[in-house]
Design a protein that fits this description.
The complex is a heterodimer of chains A (214) and B (302). Chain A is an all-alpha fold. Helices cover 81% and strands 2% of the residues of chain A. The N and C termini of chain A lie close together (6 Å). Chain B starts with a helix and ends with a strand. Classes of the chains: A mainly alpha (214), B alpha/beta (302).
């Protein structure tokens, strides 16, 4: 794979995964609201869990890529992110024998957390972690991976790092807006989750098929 | 386009003029709250930048008065259950509806659940709301309360607005099924609905998807919907209960008179019920439209 194609592919996936990451955080509110309300506590939980997942993902991603600087391994991590998204909406049964919609695994988790944790703030934070920590942490591995895979010389390393962060953050912005203003009013939360998982799988496949750069 | 329409409606919808003397304003966790006094009336409003939504009004000269018209019709719900021993209110506001019920029916257990602790404080400070063992206030999200607290009630009144919006998780089929699990046999739910947008059709369709019968009380700007299961209640039977309750409790706004405004929803609006998975309430609220629900109501047979 040529150097230029390689770089473009890394940027493109950074954009797409940035989109999915923030879109998924916004979507998390729709899952949490029925069980934990729509107040400031829910947003505090979502935002802090997202940032914590990024913290952990950056640390882990950096260490892993130093050991195994392979786009294929990055693809595997991204694929795992998609799997953890799908897990949230796996059907597990009906609601009180009156299934208007199938109960999904994320819902079972939120009900269990709500019953086990008497404090609403602790409850919503734990439930937010259960929903969004794993996929966001895995996607967060992308940035340090991308930087390491792109860097060949120190001449342009500042620009390369800047591009990775700038492009993925621009994806974050569009993911936030498109999810809130367009996707949530258009299709259901579970359908959005599966859409994000599908996009993430495509990104993972692309990364796994990328050869080493020449 | 939708986003644009949404912005326009935010700029124009449902505002009230700022009137009277400001007693106190607070920026709470959830709202900007203003308490004003105009003559003998104390008003609680939520809002920002000179756009205010009136949440509650209190006539300081008359503890039994309900100056906001639709809140009188919320009390029409009392005639529906066979007995009224316990009332749950979701959304306290200034607390006047709950205080009115407690004043007239001191033996009934009344629990009001309010999300915003500052709203509770201001209701107690300016709206003469005094709790005791039969009139209690809990500070919590309404749906969390219904899920966690397994006590059941004869009447559940829902009036939870944040400015012009109802939080979506208080307007879905799953929410109303949770409400239903907290109703005693023969219990009923009453809900205040603002009727000018698509949200009205959606709310009626959702209520109809969870309950067998829905009655409507057009009440000066707002509509009070009362939903219940079981046999359809004949007007005569309701009138007899209203009369008996009126004799026993001497309500300031007589139940038999409120009952005259009863309309029966004969066919739910042609709209998908809102569900937890898909409930775009902010968008529906922004779409102003003729409401189908009002085409399918009839006066009850005498």
């Amino acid at each position: 794979m040529s150097d230029r194609t390689f770089r473009l592919a890394i940027y493109l996936n950074g954009f797409v995964l940035g989109f999915v990451l923030m879109g998924f955080e916004m979507l998390g509110s729709r899952f949490l609201n029925p069980y934990f309300g729509s107040g400031i506590n829910t947003w505090a939980a979502l935002i802090s869990v997202t940032l914590f997942a990024l913290t952990v993902g950056y640390f882990i991603g950096g260490r892993v890529v130093d050991r195994w600087p392979s786009p294929r391994l990055l693809g595997v991590l991204v694929l795992m992110a998609a799997v953890t998204m799908v897990l949230i909406v796996v059907p597990v049964g009906g609601l009180d024998g009156d299934p208007i919609e199938w109960e999904y695994l994320g819902e079972t988790m939120m009900i269990a957390v709500g019953e086990a944790v008497p404090d609403d703030r602790a409850g919503v934070t734990l439930a937010a972690a259960g929903l969004i920590f794993a996929p966001i942490c895995l996607i967060a591995c992308y940035s340090p991976f991308a930087v390491r895979l792109l860097l060949v010389s120190t001449d342009s390393s500042g620009q390369q790092v800047g591009n990775v962060y700038g492009i993925s953050t621009f994806g974050n912005i569009l993911g936030t807006l498109a999810t809130s203003f367009w996707l949530i009013p258009s299709i259901g939360s579970k359908a959005i989750t599966l859409t994000f998982a599908g996009i993430t799988v495509l990104s993972a496949l692309m990364l796994m098929l990328m050869g080493r750069r020449r | 386009m939708r986003i644009f329409a949404f912005l326009i409606i935010l700029l124009t919808a449902g505002q009230a003029m700022a009137q009277g003397q400001l007693l106190e304003s607070r920026e709470s966790l959830y709202n900007n709250i203003y308490v004003r006094q105009s003559g003998d009336t104390v008003i609680m409003q939520f809002g920002k930048n000179k756009r205010y939504w009136t949440e509650s009004m209190y006539d300081t000269t008359d503890d039994a008065a309900l100056p906001v018209n639709y809140t009188r019709y919320m009390t029409a719900a009392l005639s529906y259950p066979e007995r009224v021993g316990s009332i749950l209110e979701i959304g306290l506001g200034g607390g006047r509806t709950a205080a009115y019920l407690h004043l007239h029916m001191p033996e009934v257990e009344i629990l009001s659940v309010e999300l915003d602790p500052d709203v509770v404080e201001l209701a107690e400070k300016y709206f003469n709301v005094k709790t005791n063992e039969r009139f209690q206030i809990e500070t919590r999200d309404g749906r969390i309360h219904l899920v966690r607290d397994r006590r059941s009630h004869d009447v559940i009144m829902i009036d939870a607005y944040r400015g012009p919006f109802v939080p979506f998780h208080l307007l879905t089929k799953e929410f109303f099924l949770t409400v239903k699990r907290r109703l005693n046999p023969g219990g009923i739910v009453a809900q205040n609905i603002e009727p000018s947008t698509m949200l009205f059709d959606a709310a009626l369709a959702t209520l109809s998807s969870a309950f067998e019968h829905v009655d409507l009380y057009p009440a000066g700007g707002n509509v009070v919907a009362i939903a219940y299961d079981g046999e359809a209640l004949a007007q005569q039977a309701l009138a007899a209960r209203a009369e008996a309750l009126q004799q026993a409790h001497a309500f300031k706004y007589p139940l038999p008179i409120l009952l005259e405004e009863r309309r029966i929803l004969t066919k739910p609006p042609d709209h998908e019920p809102l569900i937890d998975d898909f409930a775009p309430v902010e968008m529906l609220k922004s779409i102003e439209r003729h409401n189908q629900g009002v085409d399918h109501i009839s006066k009850p047979a005498e």
